[in-house]
Amino acid sequence: MKKITTLFIFFACSGQVFAKGGITIEMQKPQTAQEQQTASIIKASEINQTFTKLSSQYFPFNRRLRVQYGSSEGPYYDPENHSIHIPYSFYLESHDYFSKHGYEEKYGKSAEDGATDALLHTLLHEAGHAYIEDQRIPVLGKEEDAVDNFATIILLNYIENGDDVAISAADMFAFESQSEERPNYYEMGDYADEHSFDLQRYFSTLCLVYGSNPKKYQYLLDEVEDHYLGDRKDFCVSNFEIINENWHQYLSVKK
Q1: Is the dihedral of CA 116, 99, 156, 242 positive or negative?
Q2: From CA 251, how far away is CA 255, in angstroms rounded?
Q3: Which of 5, 141, 171, 223 has a CA 20 to 30 Å removed from the CA of 106?
Q4: What is the pTM of this model?
Q5: Adjacency order of strands within the sheet including 76-78
Q6: Does an H or E element contain 198, and which?
């Protein structure tokens, strides 16, 4: 079982920054044996400790944020109550996706680790919404895209092997786009939705990972057509630099 560990890159020079509001983690009573196992896995992964430390160091809240596992709906952020809600079923569905797609056989990462990675990215995504609300950060464009970027930037900068976590999260978007429950066409509601399409979120996340380290991840965008690949790689490098710098205008540690 993997435990997520953080790298506080600027700890020595900046010192600890304690959250004003802090974070409360609530684990609702599991209703089934599967949910009980999920709750145990989440606790053992220490993902909540990681998330809380990241917030304290890099995106502290003025108002206490509540994270509730075991909600009936979600994942989502409730701005009225300043709370994040994550059903146990989200982890179970993620685990099922990674398992069905043979993640361990293809990439040497267990379905459990893949689902834990996806959960951390999702926590950070929802925390991005909460941080925008808490800090009154202006958003020009789609907020869902902005907080996808927030989650990935935090992973790439402040989590040990965070690039690997981000790739797992991207793969989850790809799996969701291939779900048998989805039709082979988009309905009008899909175009009106606040989220980008799953495959767009997949490539956007990979773009940031590639842009953060082009030499290490020169293969990462190989799914892109050859005639477009060079331009896309150049874009991803500059895109990472811009988004990384812009988000750090609002984080506790400046780049």
Answers
A1: negative
A2: 9
A3: 5
A4: 0.86
A5: 23-27, 65-69, 83-86, 76-78
A6: helix 198-212
> What residues form DSSP beta bridges with 23?
65
Cβ neighbours around 187 below 10 Å, total? 9
Q: Which amino acid is at 39?
A: A
Q: What are the residue ranges of helices labelled H in 32-142?
A: 33-45, 47-58, 88-100, 103-107, 111-135
pLDDT in tens, the chain (255 residues): 555 554 443 333 333 334 357 999 999 999 999 999 999 999 999 999 999 999 999 999 999 999 999 999 999 999 999 999 999 999 999 999 999 989 999 888 999 999 999 999 999 999 999 999 999 999 988 899 999 999 999 999 999 999 999 999 999 988 876 755 555 555 645 544 555 677 889 999 999 999 999 999 998 887 777 787 888 889 999 999 999 999 999 998 766
